[in-house]
Known about the structure:
The chain is an alpha/beta fold. The chain has 17 helices and 16 strands.
Amino acid sequence: MDCHSIPPEIFATAFEIGVSLWGIRFVPPVCLVCKRWNAIVIGTSSLWGIISVENIQPSALQSQITRAKSSPLVVKIPPYHITRKPHERAIERLIRLSPNWISADVGTDSLTRCHWGDLCSSLGILNLRQGFTRPESSAFFNDEDRSAWGAPLKLHSFSAHGLEKSWILDFLSPSIKYFHFRGGVTSTQGSHSTSDTLLYLSRIPQATTIELENLRHCHRDFKECTTVVLYHLRTLKLSSVLCIPNLLSGVSTPHLKTLIVAADINDWGRRIADDTLPMALFFSQWSQPSFIPYRLHTLELVDCLLTTDVPFLIRWLSRLPNLIRLILIDDAIGQAATPSTAGTGQVSLYEALASPTAAAPVSTGWLCPSLMQLHLDTDLAVIDLIGIARARGGIAQPVGNGPSPARLRRLYSPLCPGGNREEISMLISLMDLVECSCFGCVMSIRE
C-alpha cells in the first residue's frame, strides 16, 4: 500500500502513541520525514496535549503547553516532580488547565491543587499515586463539590497506587469499568483488610476488568459479609495478594472470562508464612451453582496451591466446560500426583485430563472439554503428557465411546528434565505444537 493513500487520521493516531511512549521529543524527527507528515503534526493539536513533566526541559515544557491550546490534555506529573523548582511554573499552568484533563497520572500532592468540580465532567482516566506529603482526601473532596457534582460519571478507569481508604472510596462509582488497586511498597502501605477490598469492589458493579496487586490482607481481620456480585466482570487478576481464598469466596462473577492468580513468593520461591490459607476454600465456593463462572476461557494459577488443594481444583475444573487456556505454574501439581498421595481422591491432574470420565459426577464426560492450550510448569514426566496428548491431541483415536474433547493444540511444559529424546519425539508426533519451557532450551522443540 502506498503510504500516501493512508488517511492522515491514521498517522495522527500513530504519532499520538509515539508521544505517549517517548514524550514530545518523538515529534521533531517525525516532522523531518516528509512534508505530509510535518503538516499532519502541525495540524494535530492533540499531539501537544500529551504532556509529561518527565525528561523534558522547562522551556520545552512551557512551549508544549502553549501549543496545546485548548486541546484535551493527557497529563503525567510524577509525585517527585511537584517539588522541583524548574518545573514549578509549568505545573502551575497545567493545574489551571485541569478542566481540560481527560487523563491524568499524578500524585495526591498535585491533585489537591485542583478542584474536583473542575475535573469530574471531563476526566476519564486517573492513575493516582500517594504524594510525598501524604495529604488528606478532604483537601480535594469537599462538601460543596460532592453536593454539586455527585458521582464521578465521567471517570471510567481508576488506578490507585499506595493510597489510603479515604482516597479510594470517593473515586469509586458504577461508572468505573477498569479498576487497578496496588498496595504500597512497604508492609504498612500494603496492609489492607479483606473487608475493605470487598467494599471497594461493591462500589464498582459495572467493572469489566479488575487488577489487585501487592495487598497484605490478614485472615484475622476477615469478617463475613454479603457476597459482592460483579455481573459485568470479564477479567480478574490478583498478583501478590494475601488471603486470596477469603477474598475470592466473597465475590461472585458469573460472566468472568479470564482469571489470573499469582501468590506472593519470598526469595526462596515459597509462599510467605502469613499466606497458608488453602485454595480449596475458594474452589469449593466457586463450585456452587451461583458462583460457577461457566464462561471462563482462561485460567492461570501461579504458586498459589497446596498439595491438598489439587483434588478440589480438579473438581472445580469439571464445572468449566468452556475453558480453552489452562496455565498452571505450581510445584503442588506434580507433588500431588506422586504415589504417596494415593487414597485422597483424584489427585493426579495428568490422569484427570487424560480420562474421558474425569468430570463425573458433575457430568459423564471430559475435564475441560474445550481445552486447546495447556501450560504446565511443575515436576512431571513426559510420559504423563503423552497420555494427555494421546487422549486429546486429535491425532490419535479418541478414547472411549462418548463425544471427543476439543483438540489440544498447544502444550508448553518443561520437557527436558522429565523425559528422554524418544519420549519427547513421541509427544511431538501427537500434537500440533509442543514447546519446552526449560531454561536454556529453545522455545520450539519441533524439528
